[in-house]
């Protein structure tokens, strides 16, 4: 069985994180992943602290294994949620869409393992200096907020730039992706889109069906003009947004157009107004299955691949 320093650091069986997907990764999904041997993560997204507290308590009621909370630093409730995770004594905090520097000292002081998502070598070095426990190097193949570099390019550079364990994220859906991540120097992986197909994932049936029927060219990146690019499925809404982005609409109108779009996709399956976040690997997600089975399956697939790779060198 594949184990790494990530497993020892967090007390988990498999070095697999479930991505913090806003309005998707709730306490139920996080608990299911943690019970399956990985690290489940609750997504704070743009939600207030009380919502996050409720999801943390749901997860605590469903698992005695470690789980984490992802804090999206662009959220107007980021300060509130940063305090909530301290009060709830969460084991792990991951962060995204910003710089968590102002919170790290307080989190470390109460024993929280801080594992930021980074999209550049510079951010990886800064987080290392500030005392992060590990790093998630996320390439632009991922869903949601994305950076410029691909996973293949970013991961080895981040591994070279830090002495911390690194998890690879972006474009990973099966054992081949896991094996590739380890070959690049990572000691674990984070998957988001793959867990959209989990039985415990409570997205609208329309959303889940779109993932299961996705093709290789199914995603689009919008929001670059505003400085916050996001990858989602190609839908009437995403096409409308893309056209508006480069069609003369003001920044304020563009921001308004996207407000609430993810919730409409997750909760209502609204094809006309909803933003269905997804990574490029959606076409590789073929069936709905329990979260624990996903965790176990990808690791079991990766092991023989890594063993074969070691035999190629004579």
Shape: globular
Secondary-structure element string: HEHEHEHEHEHEEHEHEHEEHHHH
Termini separation comes to 24 Å
Main sheet, how many strands, which sense, barrel?
8 strands, parallel
β-sheet strand percentage = 5-15%
Number of helices: 13
Describe this structure in words.
The protein has 314 residues and is an alpha/beta fold. It has helices at residues 5-10, 27-35, 49-62, 78-87, 101-109, 121-129, 151-161, 175-183, 205-212, 236-245, 251-258, 261-268, 291-311, and strands spanning 16-18, 40-43, 67-72, 92-96, 113-118, 135-138, 144-145, 166-169, 188-191, 219-222, 230-233. The strands form 2 sheets. It has an 8-stranded parallel β-sheet. A 3-stranded antiparallel β-sheet has the order 7-11-10, with helices on one face. Helix 3 (49-62) links the parallel strand 2 (40-43) and strand 3. The protein is globular, with a radius of gyration of 18 Å. The two termini are 24 Å apart. The relative contact order is 0.14.
């Amino acid at each position: 069985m594949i184990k790494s320093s990530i497993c020892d650091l967090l007390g988990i069986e498999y070095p697999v994180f479930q991505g913090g997907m806003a309005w998707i990764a709730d306490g139920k999904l996080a608990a299911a992943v943690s019970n399956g041997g990985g690290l489940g993560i609750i997504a704070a997204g743009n939600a207030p602290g009380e919502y996050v507290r409720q999801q943390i308590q749901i997860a605590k009621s469903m698992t005695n294994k470690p789980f984490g909370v992802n804090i999206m630093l662009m959220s107007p409730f980021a300060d509130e949620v940063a305090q909530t995770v301290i009060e709830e004594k969460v084991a792990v905090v991951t962060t995204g869409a910003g710089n968590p520097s102002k919170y790290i000292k307080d989190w470390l002081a109460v024993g929280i393992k801080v594992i930021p998502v980074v999209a550049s070598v510079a951010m990886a070095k800064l987080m290392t200096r500030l005392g992060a426990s590990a790093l998630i190097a996320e390439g632009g193949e991922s869903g949601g907020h994305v950076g410029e570099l691909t996973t293949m390019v970013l991961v080895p550079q981040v591994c070279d730039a830090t002495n911390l364990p690194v998890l690879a994220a972006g474009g990973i859906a099966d054992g081949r992706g896991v094996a590739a991540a380890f070959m690049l120097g990572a000691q674990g992986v984070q998957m988001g889109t793959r867990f959209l197909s989990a039985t415990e994932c409570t997205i609208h049936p329309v959303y889940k069906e779109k993932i299961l029927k996705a093709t290789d060219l199914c995603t689009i990146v919008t929001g670059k003009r505003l400085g916050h690019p996001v990858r989602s499925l190609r839908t009437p809404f995403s096409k409308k947004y893309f056209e508006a982005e480069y069609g003369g609409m003001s920044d304020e109108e563009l921001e308004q157009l996207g407000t609430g779009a993810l919730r409409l996709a997750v909760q209502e399956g609204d094809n006309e107004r909803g933003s269905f976040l997804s990574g490029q690997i959606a076409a590789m997600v073929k069936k709905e299955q329990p979260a624990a089975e996903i965790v176990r399956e990808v690791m079991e697939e990766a092991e023989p691949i890594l063993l074969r790779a070691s035999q190629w060198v004579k």
